Amino acid sequence: MRIVAGMDEAGYGPLLGPLVVCCWAIEVRDADSDATDLWSRLATAVCRRPNDKKGRIAIDDSKTLKGSKDAAAHPLRHLERGALAALGAMLAGEGGVPIPETEDALLQRVSLDAAPSLPWYAHTAPAALPLCHERDALALAANRLRVACDHAGLRLLGCRAVMVEPQELNRIAGAAGSKGAVNGWAAMRLACKLRATHPDADIDLACDRHGGRTRYREELARAFPDAMVRVLGESEQASHYELREGRGSLRVHFETEADARHLPVALSSMTAKYLRELRMARLNAFFAERLPGLAPTAGYVQDGRRFLAEIEPLLASAGVQRDALVRAV
Q: How many CA atoms lie within 13 A of 50 on its CB side?
């Protein structure tokens, strides 16, 4: 069995809200075929452009596809269509319900961990899904993608996500002395889960580079202590490794702009951003209920500080610990 997978994150830089890291895996049934450009293989159903005349599903870096909050159309429409159509295509192949009906149902399907008992999750209702599409339209898009995958000899195997909330992020970064360690910790958890789920497969896993780093061998060796880790190449553009453990192999590639070259990375970028936006909507709703007129925040540093200054007087009465809300790094 041959698998191509991709990993990406959303929310590394903000002051508030979770860091979300996602990994999508796709089976390639023809082991000898080129699996580099899956956009070409799935061209009947997917494209990179956000507004395609053929109605195909846009899959690209989330920064390209997320709309402006000031536009008339919903800013998450392209992210939602891509992420939920892919999940629907996968679940339809398993004979399950094509598209989760709520945010919590989606998280139960993809998250490695149970949702933390933070006040803004415990005391606000999960979003009904989809946010900005008709369910029947998404089901059609999911079926179109599934058919294209069948014709191309591909199968969507699944998506997994790690949600790192501020308190845990602060703990990991503090212990390691670097915020960059948080990305690596989440990525290695997902890589281990992928390997454990498909122990006999030959897997190619592409990831965006973690900052300016070029060397990842020690990190991989710690995550896979029973594997032999071989360096295939390390440069400013890309670092490649092969791990041998059991009957299958795992090749891991850390590349600059990986989301522009690998469809599973782009799909992971979209899914991670969509999940983070759902989480941030809950946080905003929780505080807006207690402070009418409060402008929502995306959590990034400058506006996050504005938001934090406005809600600071509410924290104690709302039962919110500051270190559960605010990143220290």
A: 17
CB atoms within 10 A of CB 99: 22
The pLDDT tens digits for 188-210 are 999 999 999 999 999 999 999 87
- 286: which 2 tokens? 């929780």
Q: Examine residue 153 and state whether it is found in any structural domain, yes or no.
A: yes
Q: What is the 3-state secondary structure (H, E, C) of 128-196?
A: ECCCCCCHHHHHHHHHHHHHHHHHHCEEEEEEEEEEECHHHHHHHHHHHCCCHHHHHHHHHHHHHHHHH
Give the domain extent around 53. Answer: 2-282
The CATH number of the domain holding residue 75 is 3.30.420.10
* Single pTM value for the model: 0.96
Distance CA 229, CA 193 (A): 17
pLDDT reported for residue 95: 57
Give 214-250 pLDDT, tens digit per residue. 999 999 999 999 999 999 999 999 999 999 887 889 9
Sequence-distant contacts of 283-287: CB under 8 A, at least 24 apart? 283/16, 283/17, 283/120, 285/120, 285/124, 286/119, 286/120, 286/123, 286/124, 286/318, 287/120, 287/311, 287/314, 287/318
